[in-house]
Design goal:
By secondary structure, this protein is an alpha/beta fold. The strands form two sheets. Strands 6-7-8-3-9-10 form a six-stranded mixed sheet, with helices on both faces. Strands 2-1-4-5 form a four-stranded antiparallel sheet, with no helix packed on it. α3 crosses α4 and α3 packs parallel to α5. It is globular.
Length: 229
Amino acid sequence: MQFEEVGLRYGADAETLVDVSFTLEEGGFYFLTGPSGAGKTSLLKMLYLAQRPTRGKISMFGQEVTGLARDRLPGFRRRIGVVFQDFRLLSHLTVFDNIALPLRVAGVEEHDLQAPVREMLAWVGLAQRAEARPATLSGGEQQRVAIARAVIARPEILVADEPTGNVDPEMAARLLHLFDALNKLGTTLVVATHDLHLLSRVSRAQMMRLDRGRLSDPTGSLRYPPRSA
């Protein structure tokens, strides 16, 4: 994935993101940090194709997507898992059905999705809550359902906005282990977080820092400008 001189402006306001350029290696693990208001959520929205840039170029999966026609976006989005900060669970579906949704959308038969969904429920500690509705869950439980839904289909890219913000330290470590295992299977991860303890738990992870809409590279590990894939 590549960003080249990307800028984002809402209305007539000053740019939220300014000249953002980077290349994410396939199978890489990246933490995105920065103070509140730095532009992290806006950058994540562009990573999962919910926001177009005002200027610049974005490429992923070997194709420029900056001006991609709307009817082609769903095909790209199905290759991207997203953990939203506000969860976005479907209130009329059970926990099981929320997690199973990406598999059903992908056309997986019912008898083939039972085992992976049950396994994922156990992984996030919600095996006993499979038939519960989101409204009956705590914030931490909803967060775990959102994470399970995002990773169940093994996306090629996983974008997570503060994925451990509503869980206790033990569950945070467990979820990070899940992310780490997914990454080792080849998924590219971008995790936005304020939790500095997470940054030290994945030794191979690289850090990207946003400040006032500009991206810095404190590790010296990202490439500027991005090279062609």
